[in-house]
């Protein structure tokens, strides 16, 4: 049965025809959407214009303020790129980091150029030099405490320094630049608006006091509470749990489907915060959860008619957003949409598979109904994959990793384009991006929390 055109299809068709920016292209060191290259081109053009308009050492300060303004504009979780081009926060924050580094480099260059011009190498020689130098020092502190080794392992250090050094760098830069800090004003306004709207959202939709916090045998904690906000398949939310830490919010993928009445998260031990939450779950503790608005965006025309086949690649706990998206598509298929859905999940711990699928009964039922072609890739050597006595579902097991290239090549002669979606370890994500890019009939979307 064919998939009839709907108003939703028409909307997506017009949108992607006008903004054909979903297509990723290889450029220099990675894969970029055309919209990203367009946005960066505009910023670079403005910097070039500023340098030409003010051809002296002062122009380097104006250009540095443009970099800071761009970094500020890209800080909101639902920022300008999200609304213009449906960018997820993970890609937006990558450009935030890029422009923050740019602002720091240009700020250092500006200070050196001005001291050279003055013939005085004291960075605190007067009030103007002092404010500029202190702003650069604050940006340097931000940069050092944002390095991956700090951000991933000592998140609380990263956050606390951001909330201290970030406003200091901005305020000092405004004092230093004065009336020409228009880019900083604009970026700061966007950030402030986002902060206010998020605060209002949390106050209206939280707290979630009736929380089902459960420790699963695989060492993962399940957090579930009543659904009070709208979210799309594949999105994630920042959670604030005061009983765990008063100063930290952490992002986790929403596993629930759009049709569910509750919101579920599966949280793996990745550091001090998650370890404490899992221990509280084991102790049967009660917690109150505050949730930010759901964010994230699938970088594909997945609700339109472009794709006939969807292939999911998940590794370990990375299965959580993939389950949500696959469930949504399976319901579309049940309602007559002409698509094929293939799901490949690689795990080293078979207990993780049982723990999650035993709670995601709707997904398991879709597999049993033939709506999803499901394959489990069990990669631990020597361990048994025998099913528990009360396990009611059938599935295909392969004792090897998913061969992404071979799997995608099998779709070459099929009808329509292929959408490849992945979430998991870096090696899996890189493989999906690389193998998809080799094939003109495959577009990819990769979920990552490396921000």
Report on this structure:
The chain is an alpha/beta fold and 451 residues long. It has 15 helices and 14 strands. It has helices at 7-18, 34-53, 57-73, 80-85, 89-118, 127-145, 148-153, 155-177, 182-205, 272-282, 319-334, 350-359, 361-368, 404-409, 426-437; strands at 24-27, 30-33, 212-215, 221-226, 236-240, 250-253, 262-267, 290-291, 307-315, 340-347, 373-378, 396-398, 417-423, 442-447. The strands form four sheets. The chain has a six-stranded parallel β-sheet, with helices on both faces. Helix 2 (34-53) packs antiparallel against helix 3. The longest helix is centred in the first third of the chain and has 30 residues, at 89-118. It is globular, with a radius of gyration of 24 Å.
Radius of gyration: 24 Å
Q: What coarse outline follows from CA principal-axis ratios?
A: globular
Mean pLDDT: 81
* Proportion in helices: 40-55%
Strand neighbour order, sheet with most strands: 12-11-10-9-13-14
Strand content: 15-25%
Number of strands: 14
Q: Count of helices?
A: 15
Helix and strand content put the structural class at alpha/beta
Largest sheet: 6 strands, parallel
Give the uncertain stretches in residue-range form.
1-9, 11-22
Helix and strand sequence = HEEHHHHHHHHEEEEEHEEHEHHEEHEHE
Query: How far from one another are the termini?
Result: 43 Å
